Amino acid sequence: MCGIIGYIGKEKAGDILIEGLRRLEYRGYDSAGIATIDNGQIKIIKSVGKLRQLEKILRNSSLSGNIGIGHTRWATHGKPSDENAHPHSDCHNQIVVVHNGIIENYIELREELIKKGHKIVSETDTEIIAHLIEEYHKNHSFEEAVSLSLKNLKGAYALGILHSQHPDTIIAARLGSPLIIGLGENEHFIASDIPAILSHTRQIIFLDEEEMAIIKADEVKVTDLNGCIKSKTFHQITWDPIMAEKDGYKHFMLKEIHEQPRAIEDTMRGNLKEDDIFLDEVKLSSEDIDKIKKVFIVACGTSYHAALVGKFMLEELSLIPTEVDIGSEFRYRQPLIDDKVLFITISQSGETADSIAALREAKRKGAKVISICNVLGSTITRESDGVIYTHAGPEIGVASTKAFTTQLVALYMFSIYLGRRKRALSPQKAKELILELRKLPQCVINVLKSAEEIKNYTKYYFKCNDFLFLGRGINYPIALEGALKLKEISYIHAEGYPAGEMKHGPIALIDENMPVVTIATESKVYDKILSNIEEVKARDGIVIALANSDNQRIMDIANHVTHISKINELLSPVLNVIPLQMLAYYIAEKRGCDVDQPRNLAKSVTVE
Ligand code: M6R
Question: What distance in angstroms lies between residue 302's CA and the mean position of ligand 1's atoms?
């Protein structure tokens, strides 16, 4: 998972590349580098460490040129080091390459190239691409050399390529990893995603699988790997560039937590009628809907937790049995999938390799596939039959927050939509559910008002080594999500459990050092949760509870209570997850952790 940027035009490429890399740093941040062509010579500057290391070196160098490529890396092959940082070049420093993805057959290719006399200096799978192009370039044009090389590669790539003898051209290509082209006036850009170039242009072309683009300052030509011209559509992006900035918050994650009322509102926008939901882009005909006997939802990480919540919503509102699986598990088992299955993939990025593989498998078996996704034009959306977009806007913090709550809203809307079309829901019931949904943004604003109070009590717990999160029913996945948020950004060990399971094991952990975060808002199992809280207190455990404000017993026994507005139980996960996001954030912040770029993690996991 890496970030790629490229520029050709009249401006100084180095400055534009660095600015783009800053916006891409969330994709990977163990090393970075840029290359330009200056007076017919390739100039490369790269460094291990975060982007600021590279910026420091650049301040003392004179890197000129109006064409260049840049890269921010998240290591897959070869440790983070100066040698392994991109860009990588051929033997004569004439061809230079930046790459996102994994070349699976790089060992064989490397051996062949070494036999032919190439000197490979890094441990990466990327460097061999520059050497392969060099080899083909002996007898072919630059463009042909690239396409012949690409035909030899197995695996995934998004590539930006320069050649010093062609100082007016960037070649870009993609297979399995995202790449876009930004169109300007006498200048063009390539990037792994939209925010990287949004301050320069809003006109975007999405490269498709096995496409190559030959990009000059005044021309973009897209071809397949045989050189046949492909006609491409431009997309006009409406995102505000300020949406991709921190907006005065200390971290992107905090900003994104506070953006949730707006993100939810935007996700609902245009889809709600008085007693029905209209989701035009799901593209399910009435015959498709009649056919559905089962729903299968597959996702990873936080999106998987959304899927678990979605199961409750779909089964209750559409009465269709729903199965949920993790992307990396699904692809290695043999679930019964056929044309009576509606398959749903949930993904913030739309580029998660395990979810893409699951989607392809389901399609191969004949299922109709729809996706819930936040990134327009991403691989998952392009390969799905229909899409529900979450309009969360760009999510930069590695820890997913607004993407999750908007996924829950999309699932709730889809459950009503399906329930109505399957005649499992009356117009009256749909109307009540939609009314509840309309209340949601204001309820989220109310929960966000607890930020100060949560921040205050984290001072007692930020040094704890372990946390337990308990929830039941539709809020059990929220206990899992609360634990995931805490561990990924604060590095504290945390577990999410269904509260009723506590007596079967985890209760042994409880003592005066163990904070137990309990989701105890009104529900069918409210009394049982209350008993679980009593059990924790009886063993001197620390109880942090989420509850509706009218419950005196919880106020009496819990150490801290965050008040949650009352809402339909199916929507309660949207409200309950927010204090848990804030809890994780303030603890991580007090521990001095790198909240937006936690160690070992990357925003989008495009490898298996
Ligand atoms: O982009 P996706 O939603 O497909 O990503 C799935 C997971 O990698 C992601 O949710 C991950 O677990 C986040 N770091 C959670 O905060």
Answer: 5
Long-range CB pairs of 500-504 (<8 Å, 24+ gap) are 500/472, 500/525, 500/528, 500/532, 502/468, 502/470, 502/532, 502/535, 502/536, 503/535
316, 427: one domain: yes
Q: Is 348 in the pocket of ligand 1 (CB under 6 A)?
A: yes
Specify whether 82 is located in the same domain as 208. yes
pLDDT score recorded for residue 243: 58
Asked if residue 602 belongs to a domain, the reply is no
Residue closest via CA to ligand 1's atom 8 equals 301
Per residue in 55-100, pLDDT tens? Answer: 999 888 878 999 999 999 877 777 888 999 999 999 999 999 999 9
Q: Which residue has the least CA distance to atom 4 on ligand 1?
A: 347
Q: Do residues 17 and 120 both lie within one domain? A: yes
Query: What is residue 176's DSSP assignment?
Result: B
The Cα–Cα gap between 529 and 472 comes to: 8
One domain for residues 545 and 434: no
- The one-character DSSP state at 103 is B
**pLDDT tens per residue across span 360-379:** 999 999 999 999 999 877 89
pLDDT of residue 314: 98
Domain of 533: which CATH number?
A: 3.40.50.10490
Domain that includes residue 167, residue range: 3-245
**Residue 355 Cβ < 6 Å to ligand 1:** yes
